[in-house]
Amino acid sequence: MNIVVNNKWIGQRTIRPDGVDKVTGRAAFAADTTMPGMIWGKVLRSPHPHARIRSIDTSKAEALPGVKAVVTSRDVVDFPLDKSVMLGIQDMRWMCRNVMARDKALFPGHPVAAVAATTEAIAAKACELIEVDYEVLPFSIEIEDAIKPDAPILHEFNKFEGKPSNIVGTLEHKKGDIDEGFKQADIIIERSFTTRPVHQGYIEPHACLISVTADGKATIWSSSQGQFMVRAMTSMLTGIPQSDIRAIPAEIGGGFGGKTIVYLEPLATLLAKKSGRPVKMVMTREEVMRATGPTSGSKSTVKIGAKKDGTIVAAQGTFYLQAGAFPGSPIRGAAGCSFAPYDIANVLSVGYDVCSNRSKVAAYRAPGAPIGAYAVECVLDEVAESLNMEPLEFRLKNAARQGTKAAHGPVFPRIGYIETLEAAKTSPHYSTPTGKLQGRGVASGFWFNAGGESSAQVNITEDGNVVVTTGHPDIGGSRAGIANVCAELLGIDYRRVSVIIGDTQTVGFSNLTGGSRVLFASSMVVTQATEKVINTLRERAAKIWEIDPEAVKWENGAAHPASPNAGQFEPLTLEQLAEKAPMQGGPIGAGVQLNTQGADGGFGTHICDVEVDIELGIARVIRYTAVQDVGRAVHPGYVEGQLQGGVAQGIGWALNEEYIYRSDGKVDNPGFLDYRMPVCSDLPMLDTILVEVPNPKHPQGVKGVGEVPLVPVMAAVANAIYRAVGKRFYALPMSPPKVLAGLDEPVQQAAE
Amino acid sequence: MTDIRYVAPQTLDEAVGAYAAAGSAARILAGGTDLLVQMRSGAVQPGLIVDIKKIKELTAVEELSDGGFRFGAAVPGAVLAEHPHFGKIWPGVLEAVNLIGSTQVQGRASAGGNLCNASPAGDSVPAMIAAGAVVTVQGPSGRRELKVEDVPAAPGRTNLKPGEILVFFTLPPRPPGSGDAYLRMIPRTEMDIAVVGCGVSLTLKDGVCTHARVGLGAVAPTALLVAPAAQALIGSRLDDAALNAAANACRAACRPIDDKRGTIAYRTQIAGVLLKRTVKIAAERAQGK
After folding, report:
1. Do A679 and B191 make contact, defined as CB atoms within 8 angstroms?
2. Which of A196, A498, A610, B202 is the S-S candidate for B212 at Cβ 3.0 to 4.6 Å?
């Protein structure tokens, strides 16, 4: 495939198509939608972390004036426990029980009923009138409690090593012989780490408006990372065929993976169907924090052995991740990604998926990978220190490259990891001295990246401009990127290309926005569709000129006669050909649908400087540089934004963010005051270095970029804190009380 | 679904009348930055809201003839910040009041509301205690004065009697060589709630501390006046020994809890650290630096 390198628009910081609407407040998010006759839906949620639901009596709620419909699990399509039905990464057995508890409520906030009424206040009152008879059961939240032999079991059918257990899944990646590997090591360091559950923290709460007409046709306006996912999940959970559900994606106010599943849409659809009225549902922030997916808390142990010359000979990782109420924690990301940047002969990486009584996890930016990288990159820092090796040199010595076989399976094609290490090493940041109580840490990270199904339609308007329709909610700049790509191929100004996101009934199936796949996949289908359009345009010109289409070339937005006819005819522009289209064969446009392949993994290396106030225990990040192999930065401003956003989230995860639980099992900080995401003033300008090693399997060289930037951050911060104060912290978050307490106890784990 | 009555009287007498008549179902609305949040979360469901922002006495800022200051309970932080002299004379009080919420919230939030909300972590309260501020309250049986440190009774509860409304704060005249400061510890840099707050007001004469008051927040059920800390400073040249003694007095005064915002050990330790840092700033201001 040809990699386009000399570009007019690819690589330019073109104006965002969604920019004006967002800065003027006109962007229509899901909660902005209304309809005539609309009523409000509310969810009644379990107050208990673990309880059997003996019965639910909704009669008093139904009798309340203004109440139009009440639904419980009886109304939701059941997926029996004995048969797995997968939709993407979600198992519908768990989805049907997560949107509405069936026999048991499994976390505080678990929906048990939903009401639609003429006002929000009546709906809330009706929820209070629903009588639920609970048999309260013992519960566990933390991993160590959930895996105890006598732990209360969430899913009695699940067995691990022959016994009922909360360990609901395992995953093992193996390469070489781990025992032999450690025998060769001159130094072995083994450490254990914990991380707390953290929320994606999107500003826009989940919201939807759903209308179901008398003939059973449903229209969904909602905020999600995939309108087709919303349609399929809603269809499966309500029994309405997909052809009768039109899911319209609203502008999305953040997702970070957390909007790749549904919570409200099936309930609102059922309520709308029952009541005959459009139903709107908007979560409160508290509902978002209590009942939607954070990512896992974790407990990991990592052991790494190296020779005196710095060669890593063996690496072992054991990662326990909280799944929450239902199986499905991202052990694949933790166990699969964490050793991937290194060429290590002997690797054993094992993940355990652990259920406990907290909300079911949802994807969060490189799910699992930051948890694994945190442990591995911190141990690597200790190994390098023990060997008196500079940490970037140590990584360079062991870096994965083309031909390296990763423990999780693939043999790497041409990758850009080494380039990120070199760029970090030669960056101005890395050579700047640090001051008193300041320290510099480095860490690397890997994420798989994904391809998958995408569809696009490219249409030439009657006035000779372009409308591109794709099927992915834009959470990272895909519209701007697509405009650059399409304008580049057509040789026209990018402002003549309007990129919109189609709904489920107007554009072909497109898998959800996730896995850093969207620009990779959609620019591939848009490229092919645009090439088809260009071929049509060349044919039209050939017909007009009465020459062979092969003798027409497309350049600078116009058809030109090529040799042997070069110069014989005046070029025909896109506008001219569009004008002539009705007489020359009709409308011009093309659609392409593909299951895209060839998404290469992404690597990043980060440098973090912190300064620690040792009296208050506050670590502040004072300088940060994220280096990443981004393949090809189609829109560099957006790519930098992705890197900066990931780093900001990682700094929050490292320093202050955490779910805090009360002794009754409820989340104690379900809001942005006490769930401390970083605010602007907490962070320095986050610098980025974009390394471009083009993906040879992509027409523009694109690689996914959105998830890698979160992977190395917590380790980079932890390693920096160590360099600042001489103390290593093995638990996140490194919040002020913990840092201060840690500085008071000088004992350190010693190397073996 | 209960109906809420809202009144916005022009006079204090009307306000007190309506407030007292409605009993415990009534709530005072100044900026509303606590009340509306509490209503939204379902924590309170008032039957009557008495908006006091239309009452002149509650929204005025006045320099008194003796050099003191009087400002109404409903004066928003942003208005206080714009006063030409207030921040020069009471920089510590102003910085504490201006820490209540974001820029947007500052346009509404008042020191009166911050005090009557009776959160142990309210930012303005330790600074007001240090400043020696006195409040005037008016109720059905007339007016009375209270020291700021005597207003909070417990988390969320004040010593105001039924029907009493906070009218204004009075800050005493400042002798030459005086300075004040407020520092709080928060894990972030803004938009957060104090884990420990410390207000210090002092007067220096020839380098010797002649007067001092210390207020601490978020380390006990109510904000505290820490007299032993002040005693340790008075008569000293604010040398290390005096600062250590004052810091230890602050730590000794702490009766904090372990919660999602901090631990007992952490809060106690930090109270002393903040005392030293706050004294240094107040002393620099007292010396005109």
Report:
1. yes
2. B202
